[in-house]
Amino acid sequence: xxxxxxxxxxxxxxxxxxxxxxxxxxxxxxxxxxxxxxxxxxxxxxxxxxxxxxxxxxxxxxxxxxxxxxxxxxxxxxxxxxxxxxxxxxxxxxxxxxxxxxxxxxxxxxxxxxxxxxxxxxxxxxxxxxxxxxxxxxxxxxxxxxxxxxxxxxxxxxxxxxxxxxxxxxxxxxxxxxxxxxxxxxxxxxxxxxxxxxxxxxxxxxxxxxxxxxxxxxxxxxxxxxxxxxxxxxxxxxxxxxxxxxxxxxxxxxxxxxxxxxxxxxxxxxxxxxxxxxxxxxxxxxxxxxxxxxxxxxxxxxxxxxxxxxxxxxxxxxxxxxxxxxxxxxxxxxxxxxxxxxxxxxxxxxxxxxxxxxxxxxxxxxxxxxxxxxxxxxxxxxxxxxxxxxxxxxxxxxxxxxxxxxxxxxxxxxxxxxxxxxxxxxxxxxxxxxxxxxxxxxxxxxxxxxxxxxxxxxxxxxxxxxxxxxxxxxx
Length: 475
What we know:
Elements: E1 12-16, H1 20-32, E2 36-40, H2 43-52, E3 59-63, H3 71-81, E4 86-90, H4 95-104, E5 108-111, H5 116-127, E6 147-151, H6 153-156, E7 165-170, E8 173-178, H7 186-194, E9 199-203, H8 204-211, H9 228-244, H10 253-270, H11 274-286, H12 288-307, H13 313-325, H14 335-338, H15 347-353, H16 356-365, H17 372-380, H18 401-421, H19 428-441, H20 448-457
Parallel strand pairs: 1-2, 1-3, 3-4, 4-5
Antiparallel strand pairs: 6-9, 7-8
């Protein structure tokens, strides 16, 4: 086809796809829509067309995996020699290549299989960038509330995708990689795992269904007045805080990443419940240290639970959520008491402070659909294994399992706060030394099996005197 045969008013597309049947279907549809289409069966043929034709294409649409020259190599060539926008067609098995395409500068992506409506929408977005332009300074953190990270290991065990799967390419930039019900190439997923990719993303709604259809069933009609903008900012602040101040040096980074995402996912779900979200906002405003403490306890509770052998997504979610909410009763404790040195508390002030588990239980009981074991965890997180805790002084395995996990994490975070206040440097050796001293001094306070899990999280060889007489933790 010569340059003269092109309609000057029609947009010219170079379509590159090695599957001849699929290429013909796309070509026929695009021509029916008024585009002028030139096609090529691989990247090398497309490169030749781009070098020899006397006109410029308005758009290139290319597959990733093709013989002779793949889509990434073609994209790299175009970006070096042309200003033509490039749409990359991708699939679940092409995650690494998709990330490479984004890093090279692909204009947009289409996840196979896609609808013709999706195709036209992406083409319109590529050909009319000003129409879809967004001021980067106006990007809203609430966009991050739409997606949750899910451990890649959860995909290796199944044969089909539990939901649509996305990958995060940049701030507020997610693309669909696979569709719900599609077959999973488990060997391919394992290759991603081996290359250090630890998470995929699913929508927040799918995550809720994934962990439990009955958890926090939200009455969306009651969401008026909830500022998702503010809550999105809180989640962003929280994730930054986790990265900056979580005593994670020396801890397995894959485990840290997974635990961090459980915290973010739990906060994302809380955002959809107006009452819980407002409680979290009030707690953060009531005392930033109290909120930060809850985030850290939540993350370490998740780490300890997984190290102790908890694998159920339902239980891990409840543990993470309980960690965030365990101190919710402190919102009713006067700030002047919270800010006062504990050794200076009067008996009355101590009594007020020790009422916070009861206050927390009462607050959470008034919020519909909060899981009962999360409420119990908030009520019992100061109960100790030896029976010397409060508010009821129960002991041993009568203490709810989630509370026993939170108690260990809570004690460790409290100890780290004291070290920080004393001006101590946080090195992995000083953290491990402090953790061991804490455990040895308060050994009888904690479930022995969870002591082992906690020490293992920090990469410490468990001393023989701390090994439990009876087996591992059972949630």
